[in-house]
Specification:
By secondary structure, chain A is mostly helical. Helix content of chain A is 69%, strand content 0%. In chain A, 39% of the residues are buried. A three-stranded antiparallel beta sheet of chain B has the order 1-2-3, with no helix packed on it. The chains are: A mainly alpha, B mainly alpha.
Chain lengths: 177, 184
């Protein structure tokens, strides 16, 4: 049964504090998984509403991060399935104009753009495993716990994803040059 | 590529995910294969770029919009539920149980009342006096006393077993009687 935090109590303040600590991380993962800012916002909103709904049930001594990662991946999966925004490798557009970036090195920024694009072309499970492992820097065991898979399955997914991404970036960089 | 059988392990090796037992085999192969060393470099470069995505700036406006939407929804939910007390934690199941009991009583009571009323209507018309069953007659004639053994003096004797036989051969009454200590 969901336990809602009470208004005018420490619960709501605690919820807002956790949200302010984790909102960028949740948005970043959602952006990498969905590759669309509006969808990522919708996903983050849904994640935090679920956090609010189950706030009293969660064991804060274990930390909220694994739960938030798991719910983010699930919500993004639902949104992606609902909107069918994923694009195939063959349909991927050329990254001719990298978006303005905080990095001044234009070439590096373009490479990152290619990697972003490559991520969006991966399959749903491979993308989730690679984002959690190589972008978020979680261990294989943590990724397995979040995705509800075995460590061997996660290793297989990240290995396949890394090789596909390397082929994708190599192909686009060769086309550019 | 002749080294394709190593690709999978190399992709894991590049990210530090290869189990310890398989590392030596890959390193031995990398020592003599320039193509696979290039593959490791490319994979590590890709991982470096992926790691940089973690530092991607997220627009403050994007974050603020999400926060605003969530808090608006939260306040709406709280107001819909009422701003006051709400069951939580271990108290919630107890309250649910109490509510279920109250509901059960509320549903059961009218049916029970109706049943009682039906019985009250039927009883005066059809009630016939029921004669009490004849009590079995006790016959003390076959009064058998079984003494198990003689107890020593000043010791409580063994219990006496008294058997009453009634008219009804199916009914026999056994009675165990404690004896007072002998030798008083």
């Amino acid at each position: 049964m969901a336990a809602y935090p009470r208004e005018n109590s420490g619960d709501l303040a605690a919820f807002e504090r956790i949200m302010s600590q984790c909102e960028r991380r949740v948005l970043r993962v959602a952006l990498r998984l969905l590759n669309n800012p509006q969808d990522a916002q919708d996903a983050a909103q849904e994640v935090f509403l679920r956090l609010y709904k189950h706030f009293g049930d969660l064991d804060e001594t274990r930390g909220y991060e694994p739960w938030l990662y798991r719910v983010t991946v699930n919500v993004c999966r639902d949104i992606a399935r609902g909107r069918r925004r994923s694009i195939g490798l063959a349909e991927a557009p050329d990254p001719v104009s990298p978006q303005p970036d905080a990095y001044h090195d234009a070439e590096r920024a373009q490479q990152r753009e290619i990697v972003r694009l490559g991520l969006s072309c991966l399959g749903e499970k491979e993308r989730a495993a690679l984002v959690l492992r190589d972008v978020e820097g979680l261990s294989t065991r943590e990724v397995a716990g979040i995705l509800g898979s075995s460590e061997n399955t996660v290793r297989s997914q990240i290995c396949s994803a890394r090789l596909k991404l390397r082929d994708f970036t190599g192909r686009l960089l060769r086309r550019r040059s | 590529m002749s080294c394709s059988k190593f690709e999978t392990d190399i992709a894991l090796y590049a990210g530090g995910d290869l189990p310890a037992g398989r590392i030596a085999r890959i390193e031995w192969h990398l020592a003599e294969c320039a193509d696979c060393r290039t593959l490791v470099e490319e994979l590590r470069s890709g991982q470096g770029l992926l790691g940089e995505l973690r530092d991607d700036p997220i627009a403050d406006a994007l974050v603020a919009q999400v926060r605003q939407r969530v808090l608006a929804e939260v306040r709406h939910t709280t107001l819909t539920w009422g701003a006051g007390w709400r069951p939580r934690g271990a108290l919630a199941p107890l309250l649910a149980l109490a509510a279920a009991l109250i509901l059960a009583v509320v549903l059961w009571w009218p049916r029970h009342e109706a049943k009682q009323a039906r019985i009250a209507q039927v009883e005066p018309e059809h009630a016939t006096p029921i004669a009490p069953a004849p009590r079995p007659k006790l016959v003390p004639a076959k009064h058998r006393v079984v003494r198990h053994h003689h107890a020593p003096a000043a010791q409580p004797g063994p219990p006496l077993l008294v058997q009453f036989v009634t008219d009804n051969p199916n009914i026999v009454v056994y009675w165990l009687v404690d004896q007072k200590p002998q030798g008083d």
